[in-house]
Amino acid sequence: MSTLMTHYKKVVVPALEKEFGYTNAHAVPRIEKIVLTVGLSAKNKDQKLAESVEESLRRITGQRPIKTLAKKSLSNFKIRKGMTVGMQVTLRGQRMFDFLEKFIHLTLPRVRDFRGLAKATVDARGNLSVGFREHVAFPEISPDEIERVHGLGVTIVTTAKTRKEGTSLLQQLGFPFATS
After folding, report:
1. Alpha carbon distance 126, 112 (integer Å)
2. Which of 56, 81, 58, 85 has the alpha carbon at shortest distance from 71?
3. How far is 68 from 84, CA to CA, in rounded Å?
4. 155: β partners
5. Is 163 left (phi over 0), alpha (psi -120 to 50) or beta?
6. Radius of gyration of the chain (CA)
7. Confidence of residue 64 (pLDDT cuts 50, 70, 90)
8. Count of C-beta atoms within a 10 Å radius of residue 45
9. Where residue 86 falls among pLDDT bands split at 50, 70, 90?
């Protein structure tokens, strides 16, 4: 069991029960899953980019990503039905907690000019979404080995019902929110 999972069970659950007055431990918000997504530009039909994105997602998460296919053709964007327009990985369980620990303690501090996450990144349902312009911030990616830099979206889905519950859960887990 990861140290973050232990921290959640021993520290975060009692703190949230006290803060929000939960009487049942199962009512306390928890992290359900983490979804990492990368969009592939339609104008960039380079197969090497798709392979590079797939390999970087595999390194970051330890899982093989699934390809997101276009549902219909859009001539304005030069997209054909069935064309690969992105890739995504969904993490749950032990891999999710391992990724979260690495994300909080290694990845976020490596982001250039990082001053904390804005509280606006937590939506009304308590989910956190963070976008990266460069996937180089992840420790598994060596800047020397990459040919092309691509963006990456990380969405942390919680069972919280409000923004306040979600923000409190994430702060208790150690997410660095900006003070302003």
Report:
1. 26
2. 81
3. 6
4. 35, 129
5. alpha
6. 18
7. very high
8. 12
9. confident
Which helix (H) or strand (E) segment is 62 a member of?
none
User: Alpha-carbon distance 153 to 124, whole Å?
Assistant: 18
The band of 118, judged by pLDDT with boundaries at 50, 70 and 90, is confident
Q: Number of C-alpha atoms within 13 angstroms, CB side, residue 77?
A: 12
CA separation for the pair 160, 167 (Å, rounded): 9
- What is the structure's pLDDT at 53? 83
How is residue 51 written in tokens?
């392979």
Grouping H, G, I as helix, E, B as strand and the rest as coil, residue 122 is: strand
Beta sheet of 152-158, edge-to-edge order = 66-69, 84-91, 31-39, 152-158, 128-132
Q: What is the CATH number of domain 29-173?
A: 3.30.1440.10
The pLDDT mean for the chain works out to 85
| Predicted local confidence at residue 90, as pLDDT | 95
Query: What residue ranges do the domains of the chain occupy?
Result: 29-173
Instruction: Classify 134 as helix, strand or coil.
Output: coil
What is the helix, strand, coil percentage profile of the chain, to 5? 40, 20, 40
